[in-house]
UniProtKB/TrEMBL annotation:
Residues 122-453 form the Proline dehydrogenase domain. GO terms for molecular function: FAD binding; proline dehydrogenase activity. Keywords: FAD, Flavoprotein, Oxidoreductase, Proline metabolism. It catalyses: L-proline + a quinone = (S)-1-pyrroline-5-carboxylate + a quinol + H(+). This is Proline dehydrogenase.
Length: 477
């Protein structure tokens, strides 16, 4: 769940080849106490629409119903994406018309607002329904230091903004490493890290203490030949990137606000993991993870990497926080691997991905129940939610409730979100905010990624429709 733009290098290749210890009381976060679930909450209940959506306004439900039905029509989504990507969209009148329509429909449904004030209203409204927020400003990937410095200020501001909201209403501040380190440098660092994995004697003088980034099954085909060492200019840029992340980490540590690092595509993910783990070693102390990494379970090497990373962190005494997701680059990753003549790094079947997510979820819950660390289970899958709830009760909810956060995208899987919240768990919504033009890449990817899911599953649509029908009957009779 992040704002991602595919790098020019990837596109070129494709074209050429066809919780923790209780946090400080002044700003509680992931470890904030929540109500103990009743015995009846041992299973996840998603049948009673009134119970699920009782705190949601009729206006919100109507908009949700319209957007969900629209996104379930693939031809309509294709048309909308074509309009937003086409040159027609750049013209004055057409652009104004499309932007107005987007602002009132899809943008309002999936985004918190165009500025901090609007986002604050959305966060408070969400908090009133019992859900929390993961705050992310919709900055673009950066390609130079000027852009990185500008983006850093937005991320730092997010920490300040989050502290102004009601206590515990914001669970995490989100950061994109691709926004505070130039993309070309991230690609270079990833190449160098992969080459060192292939050839352990390969020396990287700039490398700081970190945790395992690769496993034996990790894809290394991106780096076909020995990369050249970083130039003096690149080393200087790397030092600046380290300083940006250090500054952000220090601010989050002082504010006791967890910082969650979003995952990206495998071309730059090694460098992102390197930054994440180096930062975690610095800031994660005393059973209190401040810096959280992201594991994408649709990757075949996900579980193996997770096991290696946690084992190394335990040896170093570093409490780790992880967000577990399925992933967002399936088509791109498969095409890129094919362009190099390799099998896709993505699991061969969706069930394999589900199995990997559920296995990693169970493993992480066991770890946090019996030791340090925290886990965010970011899923829209009902079965995964039910399995995680059952596992939490098996382990003893009291052992994990301060260390576990469920998460879904703002505007999606609301039934699951409210069901988990009603079952006594902390639940956050991933809430991007920023000007419509800036957030457009995120909206495009949301439509592209989820149109198949929304078309295939009418679960939320049916429950929303059922609740609207119930309210209509109640108002008439």
């Amino acid at each position: 769940m992040a704002f991602r733009v595919i790098s020019p290098r990837i596109l070129k290749n494709l074209r050429c080849n066809t919780t923790t210890k209780p946090l400080k009381t002044f700003h509680p976060s992931i470890s904030t106490a929540i109500a103990s679930p009743s015995p009846a909450a041992a299973t996840l209940s998603l049948e009673d629409s009134e119970q699920l959506f009782g705190s949601v306004s009729t206006k919100q439900l109507l908009r949700s119903s319209v957007v969900q039905h629209a996104m379930a029509v693939e031809s309509l989504v294709d048309l909308g994406m074509w309009v937003m990507k086409s040159s027609v969209f750049e013209s004055g009148v057409m652009k104004d018309l499309v932007m107005t329509t987007m602002r009132q429909t899809f943008y309002s449904h999936f985004c918190a607002g165009e500025d901090a004030a609007a986002a604050g209203r959305s966060i408070r409204a969400l908090n009133d329904t019992g859900l929390r927020s993961m705050l992310v400003y919709g900055v673009e990937d950066a390609h130079d230091n000027e852009g990185c410095d500008k983006n850093l200020q937005w991320f730092l501001n997010n920490v300040d903004v989050s502290k102004s909201f009601p206590p515990s209403s914001v669970s995490f501040v989100i950061v994109k490493i691709t926004a505070i380190c130039p993309m070309p440098l991230l690609e270079r660092l990833s190449d160098l890290l992969r080459w060192q994995q292939k050839h352990p004697s390969f020396v990287l003088p700039w490398k700081q203490d970190s945790l395992p980034i690769f496993a034996e099954s990790s894809p290394l085909y991106h780096t076909q030949k020995r990369p050249k060492p970083l130039t003096p200019e690149e080393e200087s840029d790397l030092q600046l990137a380290n300083q940006r992340l250090l500054k952000l980490g220090q601010k989050c540590e002082e504010a006791n606000m967890p910082l969650l690092v979003d995952a990206e595509h495998t071309t730059v993910q090694p460098a992102i993991d390197y930054f994440t783990y180096s930062s975690a070693i610095i800031h994660n102390k005393d059973n209190n993870p401040i810096v959280f990494g992201t594991i994408q379970s649709y990757l075949k090497d996900a579980k193996e990497r997770l096991l290696l990373t946690i084992k190394a962190a335990e040896k170093m005494g570093v409490p780790m926080g992880f967000k577990l997701v399925r992933g967002a680059y399936m088509s791109t990753e498969s095409k890129l691997a094919e362009s190099f003549g390799y099998a896709s790094p993505i699991h061969d079947t969706i069930q394999d991905t589900h199995n990997c997510f559920n296995d990693c979820s169970s493993f992480l819950l066991e770890k946090v129940a019996n030791g340090p660390g925290s886990v965010v289970l970011a899923t829209h899958n009902i079965e995964s939610g039910k399995l995680a709830v059952a596992k939490a009760h098996e382990l003893g909810v009291e052992k994990v409730k301060h260390k576990l956060e469920f998460a879904q995208l703002y505007g999606m899987s609301d039934a699951l979100s409210y069901g988990l919240s009603n079952a006594g768990f902390q639940v956050s919504k991933y809430m991007p905010f920023g000007p419509v033009e800036m957030v457009m890449p995120y909206l495009l990817r949301r439509a592209e990624e989820n149109r198949g899911v929304l078309a295939a599953s009418g679960f939320d649509r049916e429950l929303v429709r059922k609740e609207l029908g119930r309210r209509l009957k109640a108002s008439v009779f």
